[in-house]
Amino acid sequence: MPYSHQGAQAVQRPGEDAWERLRLGLINLIAFALAYGSAHVRDLTTLATHHFSVPLDASVPMWPLMVWPYLCSVPLLMACFCLAPAGEPLRTFSRRMLCVTALAGLCFASFPAINTFPPPDPAAGLSSELLHLLDDVDGRGNQLPSLHVAYAVLAMTLTRFFRPGLRNVARVFLSVVAISAVMTHRHHLADAAVALLMTWIVMHVVKPDRPTPDVALHYFCFGVLAFATARNLGWLWAGVYLAASLIRVAWAYERNDAAFAHKQDGRLPWHAWLVLAPWLIGYRITWCLQRMRTRGLSPFQRWQPDLWVGRRLTENESARLPRPLSVIDLSAELSETASLRTQHYHHVPLLDLRLPSEDSLRDISAIIAEERAAGRHVYLHCSMGIARSIQVANAIAPFRTSR
Questions:
Q1: One domain for residues 163 and 286
Q2: b or e along 178-203 (b: 16 or more beta carbons within 10 Å of the residue's beta carbon)?
Q3: Quick one: DSSP state of residue 337?
């Protein structure tokens, strides 16, 4: 998807803020569905035997009325993605929530725990009836850690952006939401304690000054979620493979290692497919969807009289480029079209959604200068033609004039 690397100070176009809120909300919704949903499916067929109750739980009173703030958690989370300040506060909140959800999913899959409190009496009033309905619908598993507590604490980090009076009201309300997980006997004290500890660790590890977007973090979290989901569904070895593959991609992004797929002469080797198939297949599908989305539009643009910029082309599309031609391939994740793998093919791999280094820009500028001097047109492309190629085409002018 298109992404601007101009930094947090860049002015967003109309609609960009709403799109970012929707996108981050959907990412976290998918993560929650994988972590909690797959664990719930497992609980329908396999009764959990672990529990983390402690003697102190017996002193926790049951307050059925606390079911109402407990039920506020879902609209509360939706409100967080609507009310968080745009830019760094919103993205940091989203990253932290994704990490908390992934870690919780790993706990659900590794230590499936059951609620040992006595079931509520549905005849004791409307609040008790709601609690009984929750038991029927949501079950009594997925206990450690309590995501209600974790999400409420994360939401509390956003209250510093509120006006002083509203800030105090919001903090009190979020505290009640967190406490409701225990006071309704939906969770044990240990579930709440682990949630607090886990959230505290995540907030200290996931800092606001990370790259935007933090691609490594997202790949890592979804690798963990892939393992947890597969384990919950009984596909342990598939989960191990998916997690290892996605975490390998995360490590490459963390190190900014664009050559980690070992693409040579425009082709991805078999061992790259063996290790990175989920990532590579995902990019291939995305490329096909991008072609469908832009059907009827030119897959490349004329940037300068002898410089063309776009996406990876099909054989038929490549025939429309002017000749003689030199190709600069920026993609690390797709093999080059066969007709473009010529003696004038150059591969300068860049990772998607990452700023290119000055060394890469100098290398690309030097190649363009050499090919121009030889009288050839230059086709500069990435996978989708909407991030890396456009970014590099805009950035190489200072390097070209400095030569």
A1: no
A2: bbbbbbbbbbbbbbbbbbbebbeebb
A3: P
Residue 179 dihedral angles phi and psi, to the nearest 5°: -65, -30
| 390 found inside a domain | yes
**Beta-bridge mates of residue 328:** 346, 380
Instruction: Tell me which H or E stretch contains 347.
Output: strand 345-347
137 close to 186: Cβ distance less than 8 angstroms? no
Q: Looking at beta carbons, which pairs linking 154-157 to residues 24 or more positions away fall under 8 Å?
A: 154/80, 154/93, 154/96, 154/97, 154/100, 154/199, 154/203, 155/76, 155/77, 155/80, 157/93, 157/96, 157/203
pLDDT at 353: 86
Contact 367, 298 (CB under 8 A): no
Our count of domains for the chain comes to 2
Q: Are residues 327 and 181 in the same domain?
A: no
Alpha carbon 374 to its chain centroid, in Å, reads 44
Q: Is the domain of 78 the same as that of 165? A: yes
Count of residues in the chain: 403
Task: Indicate the DSSP class of residue 61.
Answer: P
Q: Are 351 and 252 in contact (CB under 8 A)?
A: yes
Which residue range forms the structural domain that includes residue 363? Answer: 270-401
Tell me whether residue 137 is in a domain: yes
Q: pLDDT tens across 144-194, in order?
A: 899 999 999 999 999 999 988 899 999 999 999 999 999 998 899 999 999
Amino acid at 105: G
pLDDT in tens, 249-291: 999 999 999 999 999 999 999 999 999 999 999 999 999 999 9
The amino acid at residue 115 is: N
Q: Which helix (H) or strand (E) holds 128?
A: helix 126-138
Q: Is the overall model pTM greater than 0.85, yes or no?
A: yes
DSSP state of 121: -
